[in-house]
Amino acid sequence: MRNLALEKDVYYIAKLARLSVAKEEEEEFLQQFNQILKFVSRLRELDTKDIEPTGCVSFSAASLREDEVKCFSTKEEIFKNTKHIKDNLFVVPKVFEKDLGE
């Protein structure tokens, strides 16, 4: 079977995932992508006509519980479960470190 992914695809996928790929890693990533794509193409060969579509892969009770609204009367109650507070705000890890336009 021919390769489904090309060298340019390695860099495109890496950019989407915000990964940097060194030139010496290119071939390894290319081989891995092609293994994944070959596996997916094998899955397409399976006869699934008698299989019901699945909307949820986890049927645990925890994922189906009702939301529970809790009211807090003081900021101390709100912040008691974290030590990452600055200026009465939660401190969270950065999500975007670079301009999205890049």
Written description of the protein model:
The protein has 102 residues and is mainly alpha-helical. The chain is 33% helix and 4% strand. The chain has a two-stranded antiparallel sheet. A hairpin with a 2-residue loop joins strand 1 and strand 2. The longest helix is centred in the middle third of the chain and has 19 residues, at 26-44. The mean pLDDT is 83.
Number of strands: 2
Secondary-structure class:
mainly alpha
Oligomer, anyone?
Answer: single chain
User: Globular, elongated, flat, extended or rod-shaped: what is the shape?
Assistant: flat
For the largest beta-sheet, the strand count, sense and barrel status come to:
2 strands, antiparallel
- CATH class category of the domain at 1-46: Mainly Alpha
Helical coverage, percent range: 25-40%
CATH domain fold name of the domain at 1-46: Histone, subunit A
Strand content: under 5%
Low-pLDDT regions: none
- The chain-level mean pLDDT equals 83
With strands numbered from the N-terminus, the spatial order across the biggest sheet is 1-2
Order of helices and strands: HHHEE
Number of helices: 3
CATH architecture of the domain at 1-46: Orthogonal Bundle
